[in-house]
Amino acid sequence: MISISLLFLAIAVSIDSFSVGFTYGLRKMKIPFKAIVIIACCSGIVLLISMLIGSLLTTFLPVSVTDKLGGGILIAIGLWVLYQFYKPAKERDLLLHEKTLLNVEVQSLGLVIQILRKPTSADIDRSGTINGIEAVLLGIALSIDAFGAGIGAAILGFSPIVMSITVAVMSSLFVYRAPFRSLLGQLALDR
């Protein structure tokens, strides 16, 4: 059974997927169904791993500590998100352009892949379509933010399987449906 709090947490964890889908929709970039499934699976798997770590912590810590720790982690993440939202625009713009979410380096091939806070940088080959490894990298980058929330949610007693599946579904819906919502944004820009 999915509780309201689990559903709200899944939405909060998946909100980055919405912003990526929205941005890609505005830029008319394509995310094929297979790429959406890959992104959703990455989100679900990373969250499952973090929740298993959180569940493991509950076996070593007393219940009174885990309740406070789980709640504290989720509150800290919430405060961080609020801080990011309300900090000065100039500082926010600098961070948006400079912050690297994922950096993969294969030295033997001389290959460096960076997924920046700017979602369009996931389109490595600049084809206008997210495919294959780009979808995997984007899925991992989108789920990195959810790692701490997964640990906190597991400590608070949320089911790792149910939460992971819910986040995977929400993530795929947000990436898939957000481009249609970007049409509203485009109409607003035309006025």
From TrEMBL:
NCBIfam families assigned: spore_YtaF
Record-annotated membrane-spanning stretches: 6-24, 36-57, 69-86, 135-155, 161-178
Keywords: Cell membrane, Membrane, Transmembrane, Transmembrane helix
Species per Swiss-Prot/TrEMBL record: Bacillus safensis
Matching Pfam families: Mntp
Gene name of this polypeptide: ytaF
UniProt cross-references to InterPro entries, sorted A to Z: Mntp/YtaF, Spore_YtaF
Keyword Transport: no
Name this protein carries in UniProt: Putative membrane protein YtaF
